[in-house]
Specification:
This protein has about 525 residues and is of the alpha/beta class. The chain folds into four domains: about 140 residues, HUPs (Rossmann fold), CATH 3.40.50.620; about 160 residues, Glutamyl-tRNA Synthetase, Domain 3 (Glutamyl-tRNA Synthetase, domain 3, Alpha-Beta Complex), CATH 3.90.800; about 45 residues, Helicase, Ruva Protein, domain 3, CATH 1.10.8; about 90 residues, Arc Repressor Mutant, subunit A (Orthogonal Bundle), CATH 1.10.10.350. Helices cover about 45% and strands about 10% of the residues. Helix 1 packs across helix 10, helix 12 crosses helix 13 and helix 17 packs across helix 19. Bound molecules: glutamic acid. The site of glutamic acid has 9 residues, from helix 6 and strand 9.
């Protein structure tokens, strides 16, 4: 019988989620939803030394912002579920709360001859490592060294059994088979083979904190949670042979999930993994949300930088996947329909900051004026701008929507529609505010102020241009003089747009100001 698709995103709360991590979550989500399956969030927090307070909350909030909503693992309020229920049959979803589950599985592997107890202290291992390095060799705990170390394979039974009782710092290690070729299938990379001779005996469980390591917890939970596909970053590919062997050792190969390893997100120049430093250097975020670490160091976020979640999701989806057509804009719903692992690229996906902005600009263009106005109002308030009606702000937004990439750009593009310029761009003024131009411009200003029809852009624009043309005055120079008065620079919106918005009174004030200032 075909099993119901169940995939999981299994972050470790060791810091903020990198955008590559969000992409992994997104691809899992798309894969599940396309197949009518379940998307599960599991928190892999068994490494207490790397635990970072606030990271779990950050991860869930980031996924929420993107609209990546799990079927299991997190409740409607965004809390990781701790007790099982009909909707959350596999709770708890935090591995630290599943602690009692893992030991029996580790012990079972020992009993079946797939793992062993190891008693070497950190100092002993350190000394062994130093000794081998001095001889020009690298140390791994594995098939070539294990019999010379202190474990239940190398020691007499009575001796290790006593240590098992009396010591609390032992571990259970996987006994990597010798010289076996592990044959693996990856949904993105195809067939992969690895010889076990180079692989070490990984620690699976630690008596000291009675916690499993990532490998054991991950395999046991994927099995118990009935995961059908594991879609994760390629940094886990080297662990795949061990994971295959663990499924085999447990006798779970029948229901073993299929694997897909996603390539890395690369720096804009394609050389190496995209890092926070690249973002800082080139001026773009690598995290979905802003993050402040324990030292107070701030990492910028897409959300705080003014990206729309739809644009962020869209650009992430396209980093490493393509639909095979020219289409670039996809809503989350459309992505669910179009996504396929077959079209995920094997090579790394290069990040392009300009393209990221392009996506936001496209989404901004598609937004309703009303929604953009809602977003712009608080920005205006933060600039100390008050006293303008919503209707007025909507008119402004309509005029500049096409020119902006972010809502915050509205202010830079057209703050002069709210506050009069107090200074004038020097080189623009030097170029245009000359007597031969401004005497004409002032006549045009009088024409505008005396305009008798209804004062709208549509009414004013034609007659205004006609007036200048019929007098054979230089259109560009005259308009730029007026723009200087209205904007403070020789660039900006059309004169008819500006004056009909701000009104005759304000226009007259600005003309007066420039006359007396320049
Ligand atoms: N906890 C692992 C991580 O943080 C999960 C890897 C996996 O998906 O198996 O990436």
């Amino acid at each position: 019988m075909e099993r119901k698709t169940r995939v999981r995103f299994a972050p470790s709360p060791t810091g903020p989620l990198h955008m590559g991590g969000v992409r992994t979550a997104l691809y899992n989500y798309l894969f599940a939803k396309q197949r009518g399956g379940d998307f599960i969030i599991r928190i892999e927090d068994t490494d207490s030394q790397r635990f970072v307070p606030g990271a779990e909350k950050y991860i869930i909030e980031a996924l929420n912002w993107c609209g990546i909503v799990p079927d299991e693992g997190v409740d409607a309020e965004g809390r990781v579920v701790e007790t099982a229920s009909e909707r959350h049959p596999h709770a708890p979803y935090r591995q630290s709360q599943r602690k009692p589950i893992y030991r029996q599985y580790a012990e079972q592997l020992v009993a079946d001859g797939f793992a062993y107890y190891a008693f070497d202290t950190a100092e002993e291992l350190g000394a062994k490592r130093a000794e081998m390095e001095a001889a020009g060799q690298t140390f791994i705990y594995g098939q070539t060294t294990r019999m010379g170390l202190r474990n239940s394979l190398s020691m007499p039974e009575a001796e290790w059994k006593e240590l098992l009782e009396t010591r609390t710092d032992w571990t259970i290690r996987f006994k990597m088979p010798e010289n076996r070729v592990v044959k693996m299938e990856d949904l993105i990379r195809g067939h992969v083979e690895v010889n076990t001779s180079t692989l070490d005996d990984k620690v699976l469980w630690k008596r000291a904190d009675e916690l499993p390591t990532y490998h054991l917890a991950n395999i046991v939970d994927d099995h118990l949670m009935e995961i059908t596909e594991v879609i994760r970053g390629e940094e886990w590919l080297p662990s795949l042979p061990l994971h295959y062997l663990l499924y085999e050792a447990f006798g779970w190969t029948e229901t073993q999930p299929r694997f897909a390893h996603l390539s890395l997100l690369l720096k804009p120049d394609g050389k190496g993994k995209l890092s926070k430093r690249d973002g800082d250097r080139l001026g773009f975020p690598v995290f979905p949300l802003r993050w402040v670490n324990a030292e107070g160091e701030v990492s910028r976020g897409y959300r705080e930088d003014g990206y729309f979640p739809e644009a962020f999701v869209n650009l992430l989806a396209m980093l490493g996947w393509n639909p095979g057509t020219e289409q670039e804009l996809f809503s989350l719903e459309e992505l669910i329909g179009a996504f396929s692992l077959e079209r995920v690229v094997k090579s790394g996906a290069r990040f392009n900051a300009e393209k990221a902005k392009w996506y936001n600009k496209e989404y901004l263009r598609k937004k309703s004026v009303s929604e953009l106005t809602d977003l712009y109002m608080p920005i205006l308030e933060s600039k100390g701008v008050t006293g303008f009606s919503r209707d007025y702000v909507e008119k402004v937004v309509t005029l500049i929507q096409e020119r902006a990439t972010f809502v915050a750009d509205f202010w830079d593009i057209a703050s002069y529609l709210f506050v009069a310029p107090k200074t004038f761009v020097e080189k623009d003024a030097a170029k245009f505010w000359k007597e031969e131009n401004y005497t004409l411009a002032l006549k045009v200003a009088d024409f505008i102020l005396g305009f008798e029809g209804e004062f709208t852009k549509e009414n004013l624009e034609g007659p205004l241009e006609e007036y200048i043309r019929s007098n054979e005055w230089p259109m560009g120079k005259v308009m730029n003089c007026l723009r200087l008065a209205l904007v403070g620079a020789s660039s900006g919106l059309g004169i008819a747009d500006i004056v009909t918005l701000i009104g005759k009174e304000e226009f007259a004030r600005r003309i007066e100001y420039i006359k007396t200032t320049l």
